[in-house]
Amino acid sequence: MHIAAATIPVKKGRLEVVCGSMFSGKTEELLRRVHRCVLAHQRVELFKPDTDYRYKSDAVVSHLGRELACQSVSSSSAITLLASSADVVAIDEAQFFDLELVSVCQNLANSGIRVIIAGLDLDSNAQPFGPMPQLMAVADQVTKVQAICSDCGNLAYVSYRMSKANSLVFLGEKNEYKPLCRRCY
């Protein structure tokens, strides 16, 4: 006697985190993955926090100038509302979101959506940054990319803030930050 196995739909949801210091290629890797999803005719929604206004408010832009249109949102809960029909949700600068981002991403992945996150793992004081440690802990895959230390050429560990700004969140570029290895930091 043969008993047919029940067909169980396979959910393809997963959570991928790309992390590292500034100038390590996190956004470039996020955009590369998103581009592959677009080539596969998947519905992609790309998000970033509305506090990131360095290049364009309606695009994720890498330091190399590569860009894709996105939605800027003020909170992670907005992502849930705007991503309901997506196959893939991509989020840049995740360290700037609130801690609710962890449950938002887990819920999306559990519902069958591929979630791709990019963000700084450490702040300029070499401390875990925002929701990134929790996201890395629950991720299916973590990719740590590294910049080159601007002082000695070794692999960088942290984004060193050269300016005297005191706030934890301080948007900047090469005039304000540089990647440093442990020894140079």
**How many strand segments?**
10
Query: What amount of the residues lies in strands?
Result: 15-25%
Structural class, from secondary structure content? alpha/beta
**Helical fraction:** 10-25%
Order of helices and strands: EHEEEEHEHEHEEE
Q: Residue ranges: pLDDT <50 for 5 or more in a row?
A: none
The rounded Rg comes to 18 Å
Q: How does the major sheet shape up?
A: 6 strands, parallel
Discrete helix count = 4
Question: What's the overall geometry?
Answer: globular
Mean pLDDT score: 89
- How far apart are the first and last residues' alpha carbons, in Å? 69 Å
Physical arrangement of strands within the biggest beta sheet = 5-2-6-7-1-8
Summarize the topology.
Layout: E1 14-20, H1 26-39, E2 44-49, E3 59-61, E4 67-69, E5 71-73, H2 76-82, E6 88-91, H3 101-110, E7 114-120, H4 132-138, E8 141-144, E9 158-161, E10 177-180
Parallel strand pairs: 1-7, 1-8, 2-5, 2-6, 6-7
Antiparallel strand pairs: 3-4, 9-10
Helix pairs in contact: 3-4
